[in-house]
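User: My instructor asked us to take a sequence, write out its structure as C-alpha cells, and then describe one feature of it. I'm not sure where to start. Here is the sequence I was given:
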Amino acid sequence: MITSLLLLYSSIFNAYPISPVYLVGLIERSDIIVYGEVISTEKISGEDYPSHIATIKVDQEMKRNISSSSILKVAFEPYMICPEPARYEKGKKVIAFLKKGKSSYFTVALSYGTKYRKKDVAEEYLTRIEKYLVIDDSDSPQKVNEKKVDWLIENLDFESTKFDAKQELTNLFRALYRCENHDDCNKMILDVAQLTPKQRTKLTSFAKESELISYQWDSALYSPLDEYYLEQVVDRMEAAVNQKNYYTVRNYISLLKDHGDANGIATKEEEWSECISDISNQETMLVTAKSLAKDIRGKYNFSASDRNAYMQLVPSNYERNKVRFKEKISVLKKY
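Assistant: Let's start with the prediction itself. The C-alpha cells for your sequence are:
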C-alpha cells in the first residue's frame, strides 16, 4: 500500500501536461482512425506500462480500409493523472485516433485521441474526417493547402468540429505571427499566410458573428483602422472599465496601439501603466480608465475620407505579416 502511494505521488510530481492536439493534428498523426464499440478492457499480466489493453469491435475505419467487424487491440494506461490518459469505456462507442505498434495500437495524443459522441454528432464528425482524407495530395502543394484550409474553415459551420477549427486557426495565426525559426515555421500544419479573398471573407464573418477579438485573428484578417474592429475593441474596453476589470483594459489598449501608434495610443498605454501601478487607488483608476476610453474613441473618430486615405498609406497587418513571414523563411533557408 505504501509503495503504491509513493508511486502515485511520484507520478503526480513528475507529471506534465501536453499541448492540445486538434482535429487536423489528430488526422495527420494517426495510422488509422476507427469508430467502434469497446467490448472489453483488461490488465496486461506482468506489464507496468502500458498496463491495460482495450479491445474494440470496429464499425468504421478510415485510412487503412480495415473491414467492419474487425477486432483491434489498443494498449493504454488508465492510471495516468497528468497528462490525462486515453479513455476506453467498456460498452461505449468511441472514435479513436491510433498509431501502430509492434503488437498493438496506441492512442495518438492520449486523452485528445479518444472521442465519445452521440450517434448523430459522431456521424457528422466522421464525415468531416472523410472529407479531409479524400483531398488529393497529388495536386500542387499550393492547391492541396488551399483545399485543406477550405476544409478547416468549413468546419466552423459544424457543431462537432467548430471548437477544434477555431482553436486550430488560432494556433496557425499565432504561429504565423510569432514564427522565429525553422522549427517554429515547420509546426504550421497548414499555411495561412496566403488566404484567398473567399477564405478571408468567411473568417471575418465568423469573427464578427462570434464577436471574436484576438491578436491572432486580428493580425490575419483586419486592416489598420478597420472600423468594425476598432469599435468592438473600444466598446469592450469601456465595458471592462465599468466592470472594474482593470488589467483587461490594459490588454485592449495594447490591441489598439497595434493599430495606430501615430494616434498616440502608446502614450495612453504608458499613462494606464502608471495608473494601475497603484492598485489600491480604485477610484483614480476608474476615472482614468473612463477618460482614456473616451479619449481613444475620439482619436479614432475619423471621417470616411481620412480613414480611406490612411488605409491606403499603411499596409494591412495581413500584408505586413505575409512579407515578414517570407523574409524569415528566406533567411532560414540560408542555414
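For the description part of your assignment, you could build on this observation: Residues 13-117 form a domain with the OB fold (Dihydrolipoamide Acetyltransferase, E2P) fold (CATH 2.40.50.120). Try explaining in your own words what that tells you about the chain.
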